[in-house]
Amino acid sequence: MIKLIASDLDGTLLDNNGNIPKEFGSIIEELNLKNIKFAIASGRNYRETVHRFEKYKNDIIFICDNGSSVYYRDECIYCNTLDKDTVDNLISIGRNISNSYVTLSGDRGFYIEDESIANDIRNMCLNEDSVIVVDNLNNVKDLIFKVNIYDLVNTETNSYKEYAKFNLAGIVVRPSGTNWLDIYNSSTNKGTAIDIIQKKFNIDKKETMVFGDFLNDLEMMENAYYSYAMKNGHEKIKEVSNFETDFTNNENGVIEVIKKYVLKNEYATID
């Protein structure tokens, strides 16, 4: 029996225009009646994400910043931050990469120095008010969960290769999309966050279902028997997942699996 479902947002639960599936509210209601926990597992910041899901914030768990923070009913139940020296070093490296912008994901919001690109980022955010323009990222006074690089070229061919030149002990540098690079503590990831939730609510790996589409979802796939790569997902995600959705994120792939295999109790099995 499934007791926990976790889904990535961009490219997974949301369509390419950032829309929440129309059936999401009714699905959450049905899952609650069955006492099944639902978690959003995103690289996005909590203040940004909870704004979009305000109506359901007491019904779902928020795994944010690629697992660096976990919130339940507006309380942070897990937190893994970057220390100041590490943040400053990562900022310094990022400032020297062409066609890229350094941003910080903190407890109070999403920080950026360049006003010229801020509006572009606001348009991508689930809550534009969570984007905070500052004079100097090195002077930000907040808990910093993650450093992000907004890469105007391609993260895998541009900014990722630049950071790979440095010996960043204890740090994960991972593309989370074509234009976004995520940098955070190696001791945390979405898989770690899933494990924390499983222990808190006494849920087994075999009772867990997860959905993802990109490289920052890799560890999460390993912490669930019912690991689903999106049909539109990265090939590496498909390689490590036990299952693949029949439909893309634009076709409500996550919702269709939940309806068929959870609400109707027709569970898939590995051949």
UniProtKB/TrEMBL annotation:
UniProt-listed InterPro entries: Cof, HAD-like_sf, HAD-SF_hydro_IIB, HAD_sf
Keywords, A to Z, come to:
Hydrolase
Name a GO molecular-function annotation: phosphatase activity
Q: Does the keyword Iron apply?
A: no
Q: In the UniProt record, does the keyword Hydrolase occur?
A: yes
Organism domain of life: Bacteria
Q: Which Pfam families match?
A: Hydrolase_3
* CC annotations in GO: cytosol
> Which NCBIfam families does this chain map to?
Cof-subfamily, HAD-SF-IIB
Q: Which PANTHER family match?
A: HAD SUPERFAMILY HYDROLASE-LIKE, TYPE 3, PHOSPHOSERINE PHOSPHATASE
Q: What is this protein called?
A: Cof-like hydrolase, possibly yhaX
Please report the organism this UniProt entry assigns to the protein. Answer: Romboutsia ilealis
